[in-house]
């Protein structure tokens, strides 16, 4: 059987896959073991070139080094060996490979012996390669390989992430229902991190949706909806109807009347057991957003059209749109009621909550079934959307032009057409902001209240404003321009900072209450 690999045209035949071929692109590093010798073939090449170097017959194994830390930190690319089954999907994930020729017994075109033969010989060869390579060559090889992986769409870090994510899945009655907040086997005291948090599941849920795995998201949406109507109290007081829990846990309890049998139950936490006893304002907003994302990705609109789901949406909206004392269209919340769930000085009208509120209102408007009973709710929803978007775009926005306007503000204005509506004193502008603000770019401030502007940059609120179109097109471009200009401050060696700048010294002590989690 002709089992050569043709990479120049992007074809890999099925000795890897018996008869069919799988589609890839070219430009990759392969190491072929043939007659006891390992040859390196790299880059763009055609069938003839590969055929002249090595003809792979009776292929029984592919070896690959997975470059999780080596590649992406541009360290030595000679590392971790792992065996890959010779299937199309596996071949797509090869980052650097050795194909061992021989007459190994194949089952469906795949070697049935998955042990790593001649591993020591391979290791010795790589050790020799390492000794012969200069550090500059190693760096160049890592760079080339990293480029090749990106061109191929291969990402061993992503594979590792998926394995970790799947290991965190929680099952209820043998069905996946969500992912736990933290899965650290070395943690002595998990507190409530072994529970499924609504806000924490959102990125997991979006990942599952993009992967086409809809069941876990559907189960999560429907089971959390069942928990919404539970009545919880703290010191004889109950929160408003429609509140979604912050988290919930699957517990196994003895079945009533039968000590030998057990059943699984869901135990929610609405904040009455949480550290700080803070009710989650963002849970219901995230739930509506995920429900809309599920319908868009899966095409299954039957879930959002269910009577119980429609009722759940209305309960959340009524809770958020309820009349109060506030003069502003923004939601008034306490510290710790969102993703920043510890004291961080965001009480009032934090940007993150307003961006989620706007996005949830848009999503709910798309999903609510038109009926006479919902007319008043839809009218209130539309009015709030207009007022909220204007308020955030007009009063939360800061750039060099706006900064200069604030410096010229007149204070203590009493009139209906006052320019300084919130009585902001220019002296409260922090010194770091003047030096930090780029000439091109801008962002939404973290909070706005009477006589108070929180000039800190909060990543989630600003990025979600872009995603949800709360920000105008010009403002969205300016936010991304700011990220580009201040990359070292906002990203640097971390995935992304939650807030900038960090609190230090006495300011940290006063604002966080000396909370060591916010050090």
From TrEMBL:
It catalyses: Hydrolysis of terminal non-reducing beta-D-fructofuranoside residues in beta-D-fructofuranosides. SUPFAM superfamilies: Six-hairpin glycosidases (SSF48208). Its EC number is 3.2.1.26. GO terms for molecular function: endo-alpha-N-acetylgalactosaminidase activity; sucrose alpha-glucosidase activity. It is an enzyme of class 3 (hydrolase). One of its GO terms (cellular component) is chloroplast. It comes from the Eukaryota. GO terms for biological process: sucrose catabolic process. PANTHER family: ALKALINE_NEUTRAL INVERTASE E, CHLOROPLASTIC, PTHR31916. Belongs to the glycosyl hydrolase 100 family. This is Alkaline/neutral invertase. It comes from Oldenlandia corymbosa var. corymbosa.
């Amino acid at each position: 059987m002709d089992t050569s690999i043709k990479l120049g045209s992007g074809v890999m035949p099925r000795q890897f896959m018996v008869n069919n071929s799988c589609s890839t692109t070219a430009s990759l590093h392969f190491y072929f073991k043939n007659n006891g010798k390992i040859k390196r073939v790299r880059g763009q090449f055609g069938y003839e070139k590969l055929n002249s170097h090595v003809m792979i017959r009776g292929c029984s194994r592919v070896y690959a080094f997975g470059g999780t830390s080596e590649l992406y930190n541009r360290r030595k690319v000679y590392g971790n060996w792992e065996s890959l089954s010779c299937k199309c999907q596996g071949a797509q994930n090869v980052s650097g490979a050795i194909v061992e020729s021989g007459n190994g017994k194949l089952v469906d075109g795949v070697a049935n012996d998955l042990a790593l033969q001649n591993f020591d010989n391979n290791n010795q060869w790589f050790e020799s390669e390492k000794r012969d390579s200069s550090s500059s060559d190693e760096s160049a090889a890592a760079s080339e390989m990293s480029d090749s992986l990106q061109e191929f769409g291969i990402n061993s870090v992503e594979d590792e992430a998926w394995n970790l994510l799947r290991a965190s899945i929680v099952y209820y009655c043998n069905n996946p229902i969500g992912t736990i907040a933290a899965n650290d086997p070395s943690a002595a005291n998990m507190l409530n991190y072994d529970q499924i948090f609504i806000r924490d599941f959102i990125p997991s849920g979006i990942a599952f949706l993009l992967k086409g795995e809809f069941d876990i998201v559907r189960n999560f949406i429907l089971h959390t909806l069942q928990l919404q109507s539970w009545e919880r109290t703290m010191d004889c007081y109950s929160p408003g109807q429609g509140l979604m829990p912050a988290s919930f846990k699957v517990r196994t309890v003895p079945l009533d009347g039968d000590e030998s049998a057990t059943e699984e139950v869901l135990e929610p936490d609405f904040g009455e057991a949480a550290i700080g006893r803070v009710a989650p304002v963002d849970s219901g907003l995230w739930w509506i957003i995920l429900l809309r994302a599920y319908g868009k990705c899966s095409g299954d609109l039957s879930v959002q059209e269910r009577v119980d789901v429609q009722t759940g949406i209305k309960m959340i909206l009524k809770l958020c749109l309820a009349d109060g004392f506030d003069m502003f269209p923004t939601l008034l919340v306490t510290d710790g009621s969102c993703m920043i769930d510890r004291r961080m000085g965001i009480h009032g009208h934090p940007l993150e909550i307003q961006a989620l509120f706007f996005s949830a209102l848009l999503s709910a408007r798309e999903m609510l079934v038109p009926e006479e009973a919902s007319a008043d709710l839809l009218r209130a929803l539309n009015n709030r959307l207009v007022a909220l978007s204007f308020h955030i775009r007009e009063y939360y926005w800061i750039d060099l032009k706006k900064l200069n306007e604030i410096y010229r503000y007149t204070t203590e204005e009493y009139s209906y057409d006052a320019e300084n509506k919130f009585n902001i004193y220019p002296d409260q502008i922090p010194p770091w902001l003047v030096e930090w603000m780029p000439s091109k770019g801008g962002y939404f401030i973290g909070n706005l209240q009477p006589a108070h502007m929180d000039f800190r940059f909060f990543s989630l609120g600003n990025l979600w404003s872009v995603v949800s179109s709360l920000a105008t097109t010009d403002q969205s471009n300016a936010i991304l321009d700011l990220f580009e200009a201040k990359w070292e401050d906002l990203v640097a060696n971390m995935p992304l900072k939650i807030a900038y700048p960090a609190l230090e010294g006495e300011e940290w002590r006063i604002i966080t209450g000396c909370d060591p989690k916010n050090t």
